Amino acid sequence: MRQPAGRSARRSGGERKPREERWAELIEVATQVFYEKGYDGASLQDIADRLGMLKGSLYYYIQSKEDLLFDVISMVHKEGLEVVRSRASVESDPLQRLERVVAGHVEHTCRNLVAVAVFLHELSALPPERRQEVLGTEHAYQGVFRDLIEEAQREGLVRPDVEPRLAALSVLGSANWVYRWFRPGGAFTPEVIGAQLADMAVAGVATESALAARRAGIAALS
Amino acid sequence: MRQPAGRSARRSGGERKPREERWAELIEVATQVFYEKGYDGASLQDIADRLGMLKGSLYYYIQSKEDLLFDVISMVHKEGLEVVRSRASVESDPLQRLERVVAGHVEHTCRNLVAVAVFLHELSALPPERRQEVLGTEHAYQGVFRDLIEEAQREGLVRPDVEPRLAALSVLGSANWVYRWFRPGGAFTPEVIGAQLADMAVAGVATESALAARRAGIAALS
């Protein structure tokens, strides 16, 4: 679990673990409260009440409600970015990596539904500099998808008429949209949804020969 | 331009056109104000000010701010549904219709960016019955995509491993997400984006033989 920046001195030594747990709990509760009431409608008092803490104790962890929103938003975004970056960097052809990246992003979204919704709905509540900091990460996010599509295109695995920027946004849109319709315990698991969306994403951009090779590989495995 | 339900008696006769124009203007301004300030932050006074009207005159058209939000949301949604339904019902194979439906939906989203954003962000501000009324239409929206994919699957044009419900949501997600990144006057026109996203959607679900036939058809035309 990430620690709030610049507060590590306060959380060293023997009490380290309980404080980190408390921080994780604070983020979880804040996420839920922002989701239910919206950022404008939520107060630090609401969050403290739900944690069974005094409002004043929250200032041990954060300086303002805005800090908390920024932490909720940037944490879920950075975790997602780590998922896609780690999957993008394994040793395999760029189409296989794209498939794994899309599936990973979908699964991460399904598992962090509430935080993703807060990110997408409340980003505009952050002041410009902090929003820009998050958007820089979002740019990096898109970049992971675009770079893989460009790399695959250079290798002849993606059709030459595909525009990598639009393809990246299309694939990201398909995967991000999951936050609006996925319900835990519904008809499809995150893995099934991730696999289907990833398969459609790859098939949507691949050349005929890359697709044929891919299907032959899948057939050989089954 | 659609008229508000139940108010047709007030707008008959010689003055019909100016009143309809005024209504269209009211919807346009309300959309913009809801977008800029959020539904909670916007007041009928803001909307009246921007129209250069007295607030009291708004009650000639609507009974409450909620009426106005409902009209903004249901209008853009119904217009979009008309676009996709009309494109889904032309005489051609279901994959070609799917392509035209996706392109039409993307173009409609690009051209109604602000209203679509209000729809997606403020739907939850409507009371349950009115939200349900809109969601019924959203269900119909998804149904257009799903029905075409199912029809194409029955005809052997879509791969048997594609799950039509997930494919419909994936394609809709890719197309809906446009509202978050499209900027008028940017690098790509609505038509180019619509064509690319539609092409990827079809390629993402089609069988190899359907794709080969499709590419041969495109090659024959060019």
TrEMBL record, chains A, B:
Origin superkingdom: Bacteria
DNA-binding region coordinates: 43-62
Sequence ranges assigned to domain HTH tetR-type in this UniProt record: 20-80
PROSITE patterns: HTH_TETR_2
UniProt keywords, alphabetically: DNA-binding, Repressor, Transcription, Transcription regulation
InterPro entries, A to Z: Homeodomain-like_sf, HTH-type_TetR-like_transc_reg, HTH_TetR, KstR2_TetR_C, Tet_transcr_reg_TetR-rel_C_sf
Entry protein name: AcrR family transcriptional regulator
